[in-house]
Automatic annotation (TrEMBL):
The active site is at residue 169. This is Glyoxylate/succinic semialdehyde reductase 1. It catalyses: 4-hydroxybutanoate + NADP(+) = succinate semialdehyde + NADPH + H(+); glycolate + NADP(+) = glyoxylate + NADPH + H(+). Residues 2-160 form the 6-phosphogluconate dehydrogenase NADP-binding domain. It comes from Psophocarpus tetragonolobus (Winged bean). Keywords: NAD, NADP, Oxidoreductase, Stress response.
C-alpha cells in the first residue's frame, strides 16, 4: 500500500517510520523540509508540496499541529485540494469538529474521500504502534485504511459522521488536561506539607486512581524534567477547543476551565514547547532568597 504522509512532528515522524518498517511505501512532506531527511534514511520518498504527495498517492495521511495548520495544508496554494479528485485523505491531527467538517466538505466537493482519525496516545505509543484511533467519516475509506491503522494503533474505533472523532478526542484530552493539573497540585501539596511526594506516587499507584499517566509523568515531574512527548501548547489548544464544545452544548466545565487557565499561564511562562506535564512549574514558588 502506498501512502502519503504530511507533517513530521513528534507524532508524524514516529507514525511514518512505523509504516515504512511494516512495508508501506511512504511519500512524505513537511513544512520544514529538513525534517524529511530522517524519513528518507528510513526509505521514504519526498514530495515537494502537499499537492504533489496527493497526486502521487491514493491515500494521504496528515498529522498537523492544530486547526490552522490542518486548514492551510488543504486549502492553500499547492494544497491537498488541488489533486484530491479520486483520492483519499485521512486527517489524524487533533482539531475541532468544525475544522474537520470544512475539510471534509471541500474534499468531497472535489471528488475526493475523507476520514478524520485523531489518535489517543503519545510519542511512545506512536513509536510502538499502540495508538487508539478515533475515526469518523467515510466508512468505506475506514475499512480500506485498516491495514495502516493496524500498524499505527492497538485499537481503532469507527464513530460515525465526521466530527465525532474530533469530539471524542477533545473529550478525552479535556479529561487528561484536568487530571494532570489535579495530579500536579497533589504532588506540590504533598511536598509543601512535609510529605515525600515519591511515597505519594506509590500510594496512588496501589489505589483506585492508579493510571498510566500518573505512573509515566510522576517521576519526571518530581525531577522537573519535561522533555516533550505531548507539547503543552497542543494540550492547551485541546482544552480551548473542548471548552468551545462545552459552550456549544451548554455544558458547565469549571474544572476544565481552571485547567485551561493553568496551561495558559504555563504558555505565558514560555513553557509551550515542553511536555504538557510542565504545567507543574506554574505551582512553583519563586525563589527570592538571593
Ligand atoms: N504529541 C502527542 O503526544 C500527541 C499529539 N497529538 C496531536 O497530533 C498533532 C501533531 O502533534 P505533534 O506531532 O506532537 O506536534 P509537533 O508540534 O511535533 O508537530 C506539528 C507538525 O505540524 C506542522 N505544522 C505546524 N503548522 C503548520 C502549518 N501552518 N502548515 C504546515 N504544517 C504545519 C509542523 O511542521 P514544522 O515541522 O514545519 O513545524 C509539524 O510537522 C497535534 O494535533 C496534536 O494535538 C495527538 C496525540 C498525541
Ligand atoms: O493527545 C495527547 C495524547 O497523549 O493522547
Amino acid at each position: 500500500m502506498e501512502v502519503g504522509f504530511l507533517g513530521l512532528g513528534i507524532m508524524g515522524k514516529a507514525m511514518a517510520i512505523n509504516l515504512l518498517r511494516h512495508g508501506f511505501k511512504v511519500t512524505v512532506w513537511n513544512r520544514t523540509l529538513s525534517k524529511c531527511e530522517e524519513l528518507v534514511q528510513n526509505g521514504a520518498s519526498v514530495g515537494e508540496t502537499p499537492a504533489t504527495v496527493v497526486k502521487k498517492c491514493k491515500y494521504t495521511i496528515a498529522m498537523l499541529s492544530d486547526p490552522s495548520a490542518a486548514l492551510s495544508v488543504v486549502f492553500d496554494k499547492n494544497g491537498v485540494l488541488e489533486h484530491i479528485n479520486g483520492k483519499a485523505y485521512i486527517d489524524m491531527s487533533t482539531v475541532d469538529a468544525d475544522t474537520s467538517s470544512k475539510i471534509s466538505e471541500a474534499i468531497k466537493a472535489k471528488g475526493g474521500y475523507f476520514l478524520e482519525a485523531p489518535v489517543s496516545g503519545s510519542k511512545k505509543p506512536a513509536e510502538d504502534g499502540q495508538l487508539i484511533i478515533l475515526a469518523a467519516g467515510d466508512k468505506a475509506l475506514y475499512e480500506e485504511a485498516l491495514p495502516a491503522f493496524d500498524v499505527l494503533g492497538k485499537k481503532s474505533f469507527f464513530l460515525g459522521e465526521v466530527g465525532n472523532g474530533a469530539k471524542m478526542k477533545l473529550v478525552v484530552n479535556m479529561i487528561m488536561g484536568s487530571m494532570i493539573n489535579a495530579f500536579s497540585e497533589g504532588l506540590t501539596l504533598a511536598e509543601r506539607s512535609g510529605l515525600n511526594p515519591g511515597t505519594l506516587l506509590d500510594v496512588l499507584d496501589l489505589g483506585a486512581i492508579s493510571n498510566g499517566m500518573f505512573k509515566l509523568k510522576g517521576p519526571t515531574m518530581l525531577q522537573n524534567s519535561y522533555s516533550p512527548a505531548f507539547p503543552l501548547k497542543h494540550q492547551q489548544k485541546d482544552m480551548r477547543l473542548a471548552l468551545a464544545l462545552g459552550d456549544e452544548n451548554a455544558v458547565s466545565m469549571p474544572v476544565a476551565a481552571a485547567a485551561n487557565e493553568a496551561f495558559k499561564k504555563a504558555r505565558s511562562m514560555g513553557l509551550g514547547d515542553l511536555d504538557f506535564s510542565a504545567v507543574h512549574e506554574t505551582l512553583k514558588v519563586p525563589d527570592h532568597s538571593s
